[in-house]
Amino acid sequence: MRQRLTSEALVALVAGVLFGAGLALGGMTDPARVRGFLDLFGNWDPTLAFVMGGAVLVMAMAWLIQPRMIRPLFTDVFNLPKARDITPRLVIGAGLFGVGWGLAGLCPGPGIAALVIEPLSAAVFVATMLVGMVLVRLFEKDA
Amino acid sequence: MLPGFPHAEPLAGLAGGILIGLAAAVMLLGSGRIAGVSGIFARATGVASSSMPRLAAWAFVLGLPLGALLVMALNGPLEPRFLSLPWIAVAGLVVGVGTRLGSGCTSGHGVCGVSRLSPRSLVATLTFMATGIATVAAINALT
């Protein structure tokens, strides 16, 4: 059990480091570049299309391998999202997320990775993001 | 260099994207999970409960800045262009609310879900791209 936990944490650490390196290398930790990508009707910067394209291409191969595996390499079962319904909640949430993404040029991954690049700005982003997440949870408890 | 887009960095973008795709593949094939940053961050901080061990969630979250540090050590300093703190705070709040309601962000929906051709993730990704583009266009029109 303890061995499982350790190996799963190590897998997550390796994935996190690769992810953070990819974000920094691809320019996603530079908010101006992200906003340049979203500036489709202005001074468009297509760099992030290459980031997304590269990531989706590699991950699509992993999705081809996954069904042929009985279980993951270091854990017992695949824990994958099962929801299939397209709900108003999904669309409203994604829409709001896009507004925040466009406003500051930051999404969660680059915001966290940027803690070592621009500590104060990134810390404000991560802290307020956490507040937003807690707010949703509080409202859901009332409902 | 990309003809017509002097500021674009297609090769760095592609390299970064491949690393992000590898990170997501390691997570899926190694521990059977989706590398969705907002969800894993919510799990690490205790906002959300999931089957992912908290230790593993923290390992992934801490890996993100470690990966960025690695890129800075190997590739030289990054020059991020952040907006002022009040904008970042508003954006962080909106991103926090949106990613919880929408069950994910650019990584979970945009990379893992799109590459799986998940209808929910395709809808979410098109939605946050559209509102992100609209937000940047609106800000540019007003300022």
Automatic annotation (TrEMBL), chain A:
It holds the Pfam family DUF6691. InterPro entries: DUF6691. Keywords: Membrane, Transmembrane, Transmembrane helix. The chain crosses the membrane at residues 48-65, 86-106, 112-139. This is YeeE/YedE family protein. It comes from Aurantiacibacter xanthus.
